[in-house]
Amino acid sequence: MKNFTYEEVSAATNDFDLDLLVGKGSHGSVYKALLKGGVAVAVKQPKPAGADRSKLDNEIDILSSCRSKHIVNLVGVARSPGGDKLLIMEYMPNGSLEELLHSSPDPPDWRRRVAVALGVGRALLGLHLASPPIVHRDVKPANVLFDARWRARLADFSLATRCDGSCVPAAGTLGYIDPGYVRPGQLWPGVDVFSFGVMLLELLTGGRAIEVGRDPAWVVEWAVPRIGKGGETALEVTDGRVGVGEGMEVVVEKMMEVAARCLSKEWSRRPGMEEVAEELERAVERVWRPVCDVGEVVQAVGRWMQGWRRRRQKRVTSTATTKIIYEIDGGD
């Protein structure tokens, strides 16, 4: 982790120019920045003095102890003249899974969806294998970002914590948090497994975790009973905007099976992320060529994403066709 001066960060963001603002939330603002040498990064600027800084400090602590190609890594830290810490993160230019699923006019195909599931699964596996295990506690599509090669990266570690026996209040996002996780002593990696299961259902259905117009509104209560019936009833939960092509049924069925197990109310029946990743990998290998020695499978997604990508950009500087590549990452 590098220590940057405030002057370096200010210059890189053009004095925090609003044209470079790429995100804003309860934590503060995020700006795109260009460091010397042309390296693009994201700068997380906290809210004005007086706000709670514990989440920011926690994110620095967690991210400084782990690094992976499956997460959005911490590049460095800077301090403002007032003493506030600023996080310099890897820059993810292609938005979030939330946007891809719910805002794109061209929804992702099933190969992209299982690639995302496998990428996030491997991110969580790496965290859970740490000593002590790291629990993210806020796995959801909004916290899955895409890098320049459209690889899914797990982001926002402000709620992440270590399973070291310390007393940490329960936290998470409504619709994704494990209903059984209500007390500090109940923190364990299975909390992430449950949230991952909800995210799998979003990938499968194309709907949000909670939709007022759906009965039941919570995707878990709506989809899991249908998946349990199997056959055509189970396939009814899949995103109607994207057909399940020949050869993909086995992958979609495996995603449904894994999701249902991740969402089990009985903690003892939930799989660990190692088992989840292995099952998704085996399903992928049945429809793709065998995984190469470095554990990566690269698949061109064609032109369907180009139009949406152009609309997301504030300025289009070229009309040349962009070939967008995505890949299913191997392990670390």
From TrEMBL:
Annotated Protein kinase domain residues: 16-284
- Keywords annotated in UniProt: ATP-binding, Kinase, Nucleotide-binding, Serine/threonine-protein kinase, Transferase
Listed binding positions for ATP are: K44
Q: What PROSITE patterns does this protein's entry cite?
A: PROTEIN_KINASE_ATP, PROTEIN_KINASE_DOM, PROTEIN_KINASE_ST
Pfam families named in the record: Pkinase
A GO term for molecular function: ATP binding
Which residue ranges run through the membrane?
none
Q: Which family does it belong to?
A: Belongs to the protein kinase superfamily.
Q: What is this protein called?
A: Protein kinase domain-containing protein
